[in-house]
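Continuing from yesterday's entry. The apo prediction looked reasonable, so today I'm repeating it with zinc ion included to see how the binding region is handled. Same sequence as before; SMILES copied from the compound registry.
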Amino acid sequence: MSRRLNRPQILAMCIVLTMPTSVICETKQQPIFDAHIHYSHDVWDAITPQDAIRRLRAAGIVRALVSSSSDEGTRKLYQADPELVIPELRPYRKRGTTDSWMHDKSIIPYLNQRLNSFRYVAIGEFHLQGEQANLPVVREVIKLASKHQLMLHVHSDVEAIELIYEQDPSAHILWAHAGFEDASTVVEMLDQHKNLWADLSFRWDIYTNNRFLPGWKTLLLTHPDRFMLGIDTYAPQRWLQIQSTMNWQRSLLKALPVHIAQAIAFENGNRVIYDRYMKLKRERD
Ligand SMILES: [Zn+2]
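Holo prediction written out below.
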């Protein structure tokens, strides 16, 4: 990537450029890496892959970690825009299995079949609570991630994250919604586990009415390399809320120093997820 410019430098560049370019500079949005997109079966008819990509790009999303129930949705989006989509493999074949998937042994051959057919950067997002992380199916998933050098994208409480690290201390985990935990718990987890990152999808609570929830601004300022944004299109109606969700995300970014906003908006996802994906592709294709 080229030399990083801060906001005053960018504005200074815009001012000295010719008029048409300066207009582009002023209106150009911060590009976004979205770490939490789903394109699941019940949205395919209403929103085509091309339309879905158009909506993501219109919101300023230039790269996205995409998973779906079933995985076919991820393939559809990937084919529509392989520059934007970074595939992630979800252990769900249809909606409604978030509480039961960890008891379904047939998931392992399904994951194996997909992993042998396509390139992914992560397994997830999947849901876990506490000791469910020790169930045989989940243990197999953690082993598969390790074997294929994939990250795990986990929607869970603290206990499940700890149990995953007990099984595989070298696991690289993206913690969905930062576990919906408070700042003091998240800081403890990040300090304890150097290969743990968190997405801020659905964390309206941490920044509302132009104010951070206590502890959160300090957390983002002291751990700027550990957070990513995410729309989380978990249900069809979420595809209609992309712009409003992005408006909230951009208001949060504006409340942070520019270099930290850039890290959370794009650079962390690009470094941790996209670079890993490209490395895996180079090694295996
Ligand atoms: Zn999700």
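Comparison notes:
- The first strand starts at residue 32 and ends at 38.
- The beta strands are 32-38, 61-67, 85-89, 122-128, 151-156, 173-175, 196-199, 207-208, 211-212, 227-228.
Will overlay with the apo model tomorrow.
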